[in-house]
Amino acid sequence: MLTLLLLATGSLLALAVAAPVLARHEAGGRAVFGGCAAASLLIAMGAIGGLLGSPEAADLPFGPPWGPARVAIDALSAWFLLILGLAGTAASIFALGSLHGPEAPRRLVPYPLFLAGMAVTLLAADGFTLLLGFEAMSLASWVLVAHDHEEEANRRAARIYLGFAGFGGLSLILAFGMLAGGAGDVAFAALREAPPDGWRAALVLALVLAGAGSKAGLAPLHVWLPLAHPAAPSHVSALMSGAMTKVALYVLARFAFDLMGTAQPLWLGAPLVALGAASAVIGALRANLEDDIKTLLACSTIENVGLISIGLGLALAFRGADLPALAALAAGAALLHALNHAVFKTLLFLAAGEVLHGALSRRIDRLGGLIHRMPVTAWAALAGVAAAASLPPLSGFASEWLLLQALLASWRVGDLAFQMGAAAATALAALAAALAAAAMVRFWGLVFLGRPRTPRAAGAEEGGRLVQAALILPAGLTVLFGLLPGLMLDLAEPALRLMTRAAAPRAGFVAIGAAEGGARYWPLLVALLLAAAIGAVVWAVRRRAPTGVARGPIWDCGFIAAPHHLPFGDPSTQPTASGFGQPLRRMLGTSLLVAREGVTMPPPGATGPAILHSGFDDPALVALEGPVPRWRDAAAAQAERLRDLSIRQCLGLTFGAVVLMLALLAWLEAR
Amino acid sequence: MSFGQLGYDVAHLLGGGVLLLSFVLLYQRRIGAVINAFATQGTLLALAAAWQAHAQGAPGLYLTAVLAFAAKGVLIPLALHAIVRRLDLHRSVETALGVGLSMTAGVALVGLSILVVLPATEGARALAREDVALALSVVLLGMLMMITRRNAISQVIGLLSLENGLILAAIGVAGMPLVVELSTAALVLMVAVVAGVFAFQIRERFDTLDTGSLEEHRGEGR
After folding, report:
1. Helices B6-27, B31-56: inter-axial angle, 10-degree rounding
2. Fewer CB within 10 Å of terminal CB in chain B, N or C?
3. Cα→Cα distances B125→A195, A664, B3, B50, B120, Å
4. Contact indicator for A68, A16 with CB cutoff of 8 Å
5. CB contact (8 A) between residue A669 and residue B113
6. Under a CB-based contact definition with an 8 Å cutoff, are residues A188 and A255 in contact?
7. Which residues partner with A363 through β-bridges?
8. Best CA proximity match to A195, nearest among A252, A249, A255
9. How many other C-beta atoms are found inside a 10 Å radius of the C-beta of residue A109?
10. A11, A35 Cβ separation under 8 angstroms
């Protein structure tokens, strides 16, 4: 299986190299994206093989100067490779379908590189290879975020994204350094031999949280996500949200569950749970307030990453408290939610891309009524939206149900402080799930239902067959994973054994359970019940309806009749995106997001309209854009003073530095 | 080889001589004497290289010795003397660091380099260890000379004597490829040529060789 996966990764790299040449030909873009789709499919198949087979490892014939590059596949990396493969396949098919005419090389080259970087990160078995893949992934996606750099907003997004990517990479390098200690061997096998403890473990976890957490979008390092996702092309946003954040979570899981050893204390999971709960609430709340559909989906990603992180943190804590069955339950919830979120968020971003392509806008206030013009996109998006709102029997419900079961079982950890914290996290996770449902209703309702708000939205058109296939594939998987969560959990079992040394409680293929003999969830049964209930209602309504019904004009909720100069009606009679979000903004936004609202009244006697201003700022972004540039300017001003030194003073600086280093060396040697 | 054997003692003596001349360079104030001291240092370096060639049985080092003597013992000092004559600097006296202060700083640097090198090279041959310590001291003293002098010529000499330290380190290590020393020697000649041209240019434009006078003209275009 490892050979197959390496072959797929190698062909992705080859595609990246060949892309500049291919870009000159008409069909070059098709070749690149088609190749990416095939390679992603191979990765997904290899990942399933890896989950069913046994771990493999190999040394590549090349690598850094001090040794070969090591690659390996075990159950944990196979699970995340499956995520990468599924998201990559759907996104590549979408890109292939939405290709019209030749594509610029700068949009073509980084895409296979991005996929290959993620695959290398997941396949790596030493720190150097992992960082190589991680940085390739960051840089390639940065190029794609910056592809439309004529707009100031996109340049800002790319700048902030690059800053975060650099920060994350640096933190991970330091984390590997801390973990390797003086020996300096960063092969995973060597790192497992010497697990850190005490303050070193805490420092490693903090560095990994800063490095992988900033890539995954954990609060308070989530601010790049809502900026970068709208700037990237839609198939790239889908990959960034669906796969890249999961790769970052994989790095987190690899460190916390594997490299740092199994004998870690209970409190190691606490920061993950706390940060995850904060991300979930902030992300879900912001998703209710944004009026750009891709920004909205990016905020929903922050929420879901938060939920996955809660699951990982709980699993760590349960493992530390020697409750392996519960640890497996929490880890199973996290892994399952990572897969489900990857699939449905890829679907939603692709749908958003199709909406952008069809109706030429990402702003909710310029869309509406698209279900009539784009039925396939609308129904596929409905599947994703229902999963994101965690409605049974779709996939999101199964994994969030497992997560809540794990949270509710956290009283079995004896520590009182942990119990209190877990109770708070339970409340926050439930709040986040409810907020996410509201956000998804707002997203789907305002975009696809109602009447078009602009002529362009009224003239939207459905994409081609390939695009529809790219939407139907993840939509089908969302339904399938929702109906068969037990099967997926069985597939994840080797990964759970690797993480927690225990298997999740089994309840058969079609059901999942919280514990042996505990609560169960049968999705097929729920689906049947729901279908039966809906069918009964339809049947009853048909039955009770008098015969000979005459269709009259329906009550139109107070819409004015469309005048002939406004053929789509007056858009302002429909709810706006910010109007829909207003209750939540007033309730929660003022405290969490510094939301503000004010009315500017015209002076008495004037005939101008009163204007209502409302908005919000993410405190994390405010903090980032406030002091950080100030520090940078101060440092630059200090550095500027060095320019006024004379030649001898410059030489003196060098000399002083050399002498200082030598003195340090002498001191270190003397110890 | 160890202490008390002829090969060791002679190598040690020559290395120590090179270091001693670095001290001379540090406090000498008349420009002519500085050049002479530099020529002597170059000659001693050539002798040290020749001795190493004999002791190590490496004929390549004879070439190094010849090159060092020709370039550093003869050609560069002659060229510098010519520059000094052309620019009429015979009698100029340079205010550098005081003798006492520069000696103290120099001794401190030698102590530092011994503290650094001796523990770091544990296990190597005794001669190589002390050779490296001497060479590092010469390098540091050359740097110190560069920052304490104001005259462009003496700054160039500081740079060249720093390079002497590098050669001293290179010849002490058995098995250093010849190409390293050859390319270093070529580099030094280039540095000397460039520095000479610069000295003339500075003098022509600002009527002094004090590099401090360049500060006032920083950032000016043509």
Report:
1. 160
2. C
3. 39, 24, 11, 19, 12
4. no
5. no
6. no
7. A292
8. A255
9. 22
10. yes
Amino acid identity, position A150:
E
pLDDT in tens, B62-116: 888 888 888 888 888 898 888 888 877 766 666 666 778 888 988 999 999 888 8
B192 neighbors B160 (Cβ within 8 angstroms): yes
* DSSP code, position A374: -
CB atoms inside a 10 Å sphere around CB A46: 27
A101 Rama class: left (phi>0) / alpha (psi -120 to 50) / beta: left
Token pair 């690797």 is found at A498
Tokens of A349: 């971003």
Is residue A83 within 8 Å of residue A97, measured between CB atoms? no
Extents of the domains making up chain B: 6-211
Q: How far apart are CA B41 and CA B47, in angstroms?
A: 10
The span from the CA of B26 to the CA of B6, in Å, is 30
Question: A133, A47 in Cβ contact below 8 A?
Answer: no
Closest CA to A239 of A393, A357, A345: A345
Contact A665, B116 (CB under 8 A): yes
Residue A154: Cβ within 10 Å count: 19
Nearest to B214 among A647, A654, A655 (CB): A647
Count the residues in chain B.
222
Residue A432: φ, ψ to 5°:
-65, -40
Is the per-residue pLDDT at A504 higher than 50? yes
Q: What are phi and psi of A266, to 5 degrees?
A: -60, -40
Using CA of residue B79, residue B82, residue B86, residue B87, what is the dihedral sign? Answer: positive
Looking at beta carbons, which residues of chain A come within 8 Å of B150? 648
Q: Does B4 touch chain A (CB under 8 A)?
A: no
pLDDT at B222: 47
Copy the structure tokens of residue A611: 């204007």
Q: How many Cβ atoms from other residues are within 10 Å of residue A541's Cβ? A: 9
Round to whole Å and give the CA distance between A645 and A642. 6
Contact criterion met (CB < 8 Å) for B115 and A666: yes
Q: Residue A20, CB half-sphere, CA atoms under 13 Å: how many?
A: 1
Question: How is residue A555 written in tokens?
Answer: 């009550």
Q: Chain-wide mean pLDDT for chain A?
A: 89
Nearest of A63, A64, A52, A46 to residue A6 by alpha carbon: A46
Residue A321 to residues A162, A264, A308, A406: CA-CA distances in angstroms?
Answer: 39, 9, 20, 14
Coil, helix or strand at residue A576: coil
Q: Are strands A596-600 and A520-521 parallel, antiparallel or unpaired?
A: unpaired
Residue in the structure block whose two tokens are 């789907």:
A444
pLDDT level of residue A241 (50, 70, 90 thresholds): very high
Whether residue A670 and residue B146 make contact (CB cut-off 8 A), yes or no, is no
ipTM: 0.82
CB pairs under 8 A between A and B: 42
- Structural tokens at position A206: 């903090």
Token code pair at residue B169: 């380190």
Burial of A4 (0-12, 13-18, 19+ CB in 10 A): middle
Domain residue ranges of chain A, discontinuous segments joined by +: 265-529, 642-671
Query: Terminal CA-to-CA distance of chain B, rounded, Å?
Result: 59
Task: Considering only the beta carbons, identify the residue of A655, A665, A670 that sits closest to B143.
Answer: A655
Those residues whose C-beta lies under 8 Å from the C-beta of residue A417, and which sit 6 or more positions away, are none
What pTM does this model have?
0.79
The answer to whether B140 contacts A659, with C-beta atoms less than 8 Å apart, is yes
> Quick check: A178 and A199 in contact, CB under 8 A?
no
The residue behind tokens 């049964």 is: A525
CB atoms within 10 A of CB A458: 17
Q: Which tokens belong to A237?
A: 């946003």
Phi, psi of A355 (to 5 degrees): -65, -45
